[in-house]
Structure formats: structure tokens, C-alpha cells
UniProtKB/TrEMBL annotation, chains A, B:
One record GO biological process: pyrimidine deoxyribonucleotide catabolic process
Family in the record: Belongs to the 5'(3')-deoxyribonucleotidase family.
Organism of origin: Chitinophaga terrae
InterPro entries, per the entry: 5'(3')-deoxyribonucleotidase, HAD-like_sf, HAD_sf
Active site, UniProt feature: 7 (nucleophile), 9 (proton donor)
GO molecular function: 5'-nucleotidase activity
Source superkingdom: Bacteria
PANTHER family: 5'(3')-DEOXYRIBONUCLEOTIDASE
Descriptive protein name: 5'(3')-deoxyribonucleotidase
SUPFAM superfamilies referenced in this protein's UniProt entry, alphabetically: HAD-like
Length: 174, 174
């Protein structure tokens, strides 16, 4: 059975939507899809607000109730029957997220076991046959087949097969 | 530079000493080295107390102030110069331990970065050139060179090069 490592943030969970909402709450400013095209949220906020974004991400509870990407639950449930599935998140930059991520996975992906979770600092330690991730840097040391999960911040990244959404993942992998 | 994945519990940190102390506090009973030879603490307590041991391990704070194995700090500091070093702990069974382990590493191994931590459910996802671990099961899917870190519970395990203590690790790896 092939193994598959699936990222959390901006792949199955949506921290950026929540960070944008908090930013709107605090500064009354939102960003259009055009402004975010090819960029991260930290790229588009004024430089003096970048630490504020980090502060959001390290607030206990921030990651506990994130929205799930459309169809992620259903497709992961099926992938879990066909692959040795692991959820791998480079989560250590935000230690307050560790327990939140555990609890979020327990609640929203109850068909996965805690044996399938991996919270690391850097994904260069991960081995699997397939990796689905929205960040090119996570493929740096990866020896399996990478799929870049599409997001506004990675539209200019080339050289990877892309997964547009979880419906697309189902077509490619199920 | 070769990479090296180093386990936490019963390799650099001593949760069993603390669990034995708590068990003595609660039941007034301790165990001799002879009783523990070839066995885990859960093996030697009465079967009805096994859940109590799990309860200790899932108490918030339990992992926060564990004793460090002799010479582990000094030797890891040197290994960190020679290898890409990662601390890898199969920690997910005890989610209350996640933050404690992060904080413990930050305090007692300040020369390591959070980028070098990995808290997982199962080590089959880990790739490295070398792994040091006290549990044979963590080598099951490992493609690098395993070193079994010696402990009373693994004395009957054969087939692996053994590291007796951190002084011995220094001799073998530095």
C-alpha cells in the first residue's frame, strides 16, 4: 500500500481565511483576490503588521476551529482506504497550535487515528510515496512524488503536478 | 552531512523514573532492577494499574520537567555540529505531552531549533541516515542505520547495534 503525506494548513485547513477575518476586525482592511495573487497574507499587509499575523497564528485556539477545505473530509476518508495516509504539518513555529491541531483532527477527521498525525518543524525528515502540500519548500528533501496543492500564494510556482482542490485530488488519486 | 533522528523518552528523557516515583506515591510500591529486567513498567504493575500509568503520562506537565539522561546535553550539542540532528518522539498517544515536550526541548536543549523537532504518532514516516531509539518497533519501516538505545525493557532485543549511554554514543558517532 502506497503512503501519502498530506499537509494541513492551506491544504485541508484554512488558517488564512481566519487570519484575514481577524485582520479585518483589527484594521478594517481586507484584500482582494487580485492583491493576494501570487502572495501570502504576510506579503500584502504593511511590514509593521507581519508580527501581528504571527501573533494570530500563535494564539491558543486559533487552529482549533478552522474551516475545512471543500470535500477534504470525504476525499481523505476514501484516500485513507487506499493509502497509508499521514497528516503532516510543519507546526512547530507556532507551539500553541500543537494541541489545537490534534483536537481539530480528532474532531473533523475521526476516521484517522492519532498514529497518522505528524507535527514537525521541517518536513525534510518525512518519507512517503506521495506528498500533497501547498509549499514548494516542503518538497526540498522529498524523495516521493510531490503534488502542489493550489493556492493564491503559489500560483507562480512551476515544476510540480498541481492539485486544484479535493475533487481534483479524488480524480488523480482514487 | 548525515542526518540523525534521536528519540526522546527513555533515550534522552526519563519518564519512567518519574512514573515510578508517582506510582510509589500512590501505591507505596517500587520495583527492583531485577523485576524490571526485560520489562516495561506497564508489564510489572498489576494489570488493573496499567491505565494509571497511562493517566500519569497524559497528565499536563508530566513531561515538562523530566530528568535528562546523563551526558545527553553535552553529546547532542556535539552531534548537532556533525549531523543534521532531529528529535523525533512518537508523542501523539499522549496529546497533553505535546506542548510539554516542546517546552522541555526549548529549555534543556537550547542549541537545537524548533525546526529540529518532530512529534508524530508512528515513526514509519521518518527518514534519516541514522536513528537512535529504545524501541525496536520504531525501526520497522526505517531505511537508515538503527542504533538501539539500551534500556531495561529492551535487554532481550537482538539484531541491532546497541548504544549503552551517551558516552558510548559519543564514542560511536563523534
Amino acid at each position: 500500500m502506497l503512503s501519502i503525506a498530506i499537509d494541513m494548513d492551506e491544504t485541508i485547513a484554512d488558517p488564512i481565511k481566519k487570519a484575514r477575518e481577524w485582520y479585518f476586525r483589527d484594521y478594517g482592511r481586507t484584500f482582494t483576490p487580485e492583491e493576494l495573487h501570487g502572495k501570502t497574507l504576510s506579503d500584502v499587509v504593511p511590514p509593521e503588521h507581519r508580527d501581528k499575523i504571527k501573533e494570530y497564528l500563535n494564539t491558543p485556539g486559533f487552529f482549533r476551529d478552522l474551516e475545512i477545505f471543500p470535500n477534504a473530509q470525504e476525499v481523505l476518508k476514501e484516500l485513507n482506504k487506499k493509502y497509508k495516509l499521514y497528516i503532516v504539518s510543519a507546526a512547530m513555529e507556532f507551539p500553541a497550535s500543537l494541541r489545537d491541531k490534534f483536537d481539530w483532527l480528532q474532531e473533523f477527521f475521526p476516521f484517522l487515528s492519532w498514529r497518522q498525525y505528524c507535527l514537525c518543524g521541517d518536513k525534510s525528515i518525512v518519507q512517503a510515496d506521495i506528498m500533497i502540500d501547498d509549499l514548494e519548500r516542503n518538497f526540498a528533501n522529498f524523495k516521493g512524488k510531490p503534488y502542489l496543492y493550489h493556492g493564491h500564494h503559489n500560483v507562480h510556482v512551476t515544476g510540480y503536478e498541481r492539485i486544484l482542490n479535493w475533487e481534483d485530488a479524488a480524480k488523480k488519486l482514487l
